[in-house]
From TrEMBL:
The chain crosses the membrane at residues 12-31, 43-63, 75-96, 127-147, 153-173, 185-205, 211-233, 253-271, 277-295. It comes from Symbiochloris irregularis. GO terms for cellular component: membrane. InterPro entries: Sugar_P_trans_dom, TPT_transporter. The lineage of its organism: Eukaryota, Viridiplantae, Chlorophyta, core chlorophytes, Trebouxiophyceae. This is Sugar phosphate transporter domain-containing protein. It holds the Pfam family TPT. It is a multi-pass membrane protein. Its main location: membrane. Keywords: Membrane, Transmembrane, Transmembrane helix.
Length: 333
């Protein structure tokens, strides 16, 4: 389903898209973490390759998109960013405990705000910047008091933050994506990612260790690996859906809000979280900022709808440019 900028869906549809993204993100992150931590399967490039190998045929069967070289060329930069983003995310998941991974993922918001301003010319309110500042401040407090500091994991997650922001903006702004359904876009993205991943896999250290992994006979391992591949389809699809229905920053914040639950579950699930009061306080501050942003955005959406329908006494002109979804017209004097 294509969403034009002048015909945005109702608020409940946008909310449903955000919740879909949150649920998918939570599920795939836990399945990947289980592979890394519980089964010791540290092959992020191979996992990404398997996910894309599953996604491509499924999406082609569902969407049956017209195969056009011009479309493929237009989407290639998006696929390249996607490969780097997914691999960086998997490396970060492997190297950090869940609460710290989540805290550092808050920096996606800063990257999104900066890139939206640089690439899309979008301005953000002071309240939005304040909420993001609280999230980042809490993440910094948590990071500097992390007893299980892992420099490679930190670097991977910070790269993941920048690449995620760029990926979300490219999904929204790439002209070649405008004529495709979400599933068709996902097919192109996965198919174009496969040769890039094959090259990355061939030149990496992973092939030498893959065959030596001792856990392939485990039914539990095979089940989790299969689930991770299937959930790779879900997270990619939900990312496209959420970003098309909403803006990139809202998608970033939706991903951070689901972390409120994941922080507590993750701290108890995998046994790699070292508790320290300041570290826990930083995580709590960061989550409070996410809740503040969500509350502010929800109230602003309600206020905007009331203004658009003449039920709230505010100057209509200041909202008219951002009120395309209800096609409101300023009454004649």
């Amino acid at each position: 389903m294509l969403i034009s900028e002048d015909s945005k869906p109702a608020g409940w549809i946008r909310l449903s898209a955000a919740l879909y993204y949150c649920a998918a993100s939570m599920a795939v992150q836990f399945s990947n973490k289980a592979l890394f931590t519980l089964y010791g399967y540290h092959f992020p490039i191979l996992m990404t390759f398997l996910q894309m190998l599953f996604i491509a045929p499924v999406c082609y069967i569902v969407a049956r998109p017209n195969l056009q070289w011009e479309t493929a060329k237009g989407i290639m930069p998006l696929a390249f960013v996607n490969v780097l983003n997914v691999v960086a995310g998997l490396l970060g998941t492997a190297g950090l405990n869940i609460p710290m991974f989540i805290a550092l993922r808050r920096f996606t918001l800063v990257a999104t705000i900066a890139l939206e301003r640089l690439l899309l010319g979008k301005q953000h309110e002071k309240a939005t910047l304040g909420a993001v500042g609280v999230m980042i401040g809490g993440a910094l407090v948590a990071a500097v008091t992390d007893l299980s500091f892992h420099p490679t994991g930190y670097a991977a997650v910070l790269a993941n933050d920048l690449l995620t922001a760029l990926y979300l903006i490219r999904v929204k702004a790439t002209p070649a994506t405008q004529g495709l359904s979400t599933t068709g876009l996902l097919f192109y993205n996965a198919t174009l990612s496969l040769p890039l991943l094959a090259v990355a896999l061939a030149i990496s250290w992973e092939p030498a260790a893959i065959w030596a992994y001792p856990g392939y006979a485990s039914a539990g391992f095979r089940a989790v690996l299969g689930m991770s591949c299937m959930l790779g389809l879900t997270i990619n699809h939900s990312t496209f859906v959420c970003t098309r229905y909403n803006d990139p920053l809202t998608t970033s914040v939706a991903g951070n809000l689901k972390n409120v639950l994941m922080t507590f579950i993750g701290a108890l699930s995998f046994g790699d979280f070292v508790f320290r009061p300041w570290n826990a306080a930083g995580l709590a501050i960061s989550m409070a900022g996410a809740v503040w942003y969500a509350t502010k955005t929800a109230l602003r959406s309600v206020q905007k709808n009331l203004i658009c329908h003449g039920l709230f006494n505010q100057p209509h002109q200041q909202w008219q440019a951002s009120c395309h979804h209800c096609h409101c017209i300023t009454p004649a004097a």
